[in-house]
Amino acid sequence: VETVKVNNPGEVKWDAIKIGQLDCYNNLAGSNTRSANNLVLTADAANVASGETYKMAVKATNFTDVAGFQYTITYDDSKLEYIGVEGGSINFNGSNVANIHSGVLTTSWNDVNGESVTVRNESALFTLVFRAKADVDVSKAIALNSDVTTAEVYNGALATGSVSLRFAGADAAEFALGQNTPNPFKSETAISFTLPTAMDATLSIYNVDGKVLKIINVSGEKGVNTVTVTKDELNATGVMYYQLDAADFTATKRMILMD
Fold first, then answer.
1. Buried-exposed string 121-156: b where 16+ CB fall within 10 A, e elsewhere
2. 29 has a pLDDT exceeding 80
C-alpha cells in the first residue's frame, strides 16, 4: 500500500470527532472558497445467494488529500443483514460505523493523527460484511446517500466535496479510464477513456505535489475516447497523475514522463 500523509495546516483535532460529528465542520468548511475533490467509492456488483456472506470491499481511485468523510448507507434489510467491518488501507474499524437501526448505517472517518491522507492504489480502504437473507443483487439493495448523515468529504484545508458509491459491473456500459500508452513515455502519450454516453469530460494532469500541469476539456463521445499529450505541453518530468472527471465519475491513474 502506497500511502502519503500530508500535515493538516489547520488546528482542528480530527481524532476527537466521533460518528456523525463531522457535520459540525460544515460551516467552517463551507466558508472556504476551494472545493475538495469529490470522493467516488467503488465496490464490485454481485448476485449473492441466500445464506452466503457478501464482503463489500470499498475502494476509491481518487482518495487524495482526504482528512475525513461521512455518509449514510441504506440497505434492504429484508435481503441483507449487516455483520460488521474489516480494515484495509486506512485506519477504519467498527467504531467508524454505526448500525443505528436495521437497514441504515452511518459512517464517519478521520485520520487518527489529524492529518490528510492520500492512498495511491486501488486496494480496499475497508470492507463491509453482510449476510444474505434471500437471493439478492447487492447493487440494487445497497445505496450511499445523505438520509441520516450528510455525504461529504473534507480535505486538509477543510474544503468539502461530495461522496458517491458506484458498483462496478452493475451496468453494461460503464465509465472507465485506461492506462496511458506508452508508459513510461518520452515525447508523447495517449490517454483513453470510455463513456457510457456522449458528455463533457475533463482530463487533469498534475505532479506528485498536486500542482496542475494541464487541463483538457473534452466533448466526449459514447464509447472510447483518446487524447494525446506531448512532453512540451507538460513542462515537467517524472511521476505524474492524470484524472478523468465526467458526470459523477472520477478516476485517477499514474504515468511517468522520462527525461
1. eeebbbbbebebeeebebbebbebbeebbbbbbbbb
2. no
